[in-house]
PRONE domain-containing protein
Amino acid sequence: MAINSSILAEMEIPQTYIVSLPKCGRTSVGDTIYRYMTSGGKFSPDYLLDCLNISSEHEALELADRVEASMYTWRRKACASHSKTSWEMVKQHVAETERSDKNVVLAERADSLLFSLKQRYPELSQTTLDTSKIQYNKDVGQAILESYSRVLEGLAFNIVAWIEDVLFEDKSIRNQEGEKVEIQLFYRILWFSVPMVTMETLQRL
């Protein structure tokens, strides 16, 4: 999803999505996630995801929507408090001063959590923000690139699946051939280990 994600990231965020953002980021992510994100220790998105015990891609997508909404809520608050018009300007300003703005820290942690979540679920469906961008996008060039990137990623996924199927079949055939060789070797050993009964031996009996 790397190609498609990079194209979607360049698209403008629709006003309808901005209006729908929660006033409080904590409300969106929930108390459990928020408490960990505001803890004094080192923030580990992977550890947090392990603790959440996500059981399906549906749950993962729901979490991605909530985290993404909270991230943009905190970004807006950070921009407002620093009197900046863009998130990049806020990050640059904070990097030059003390990183004490809680909204900036939470927004960056939400961003890293969202990134780790998408890494764990590479086939995750598009988030609410992604679908909103596609729906309200007015740039024809970006629309073409976005559609083309989805086709390319679909083909890439199919090619990888085909390769995995071929490797699986090849391994199965090799295992079957190995079992046949082992069986043949077993019978050969058994044959040579059994005493030969000759006619002379029978006459003696």
The mean pLDDT is 80. Residues 106 and 183 are 63 Å apart (CA to CA). Residues 158-204 form one domain. The chain has two domains: 2-138, 158-204.
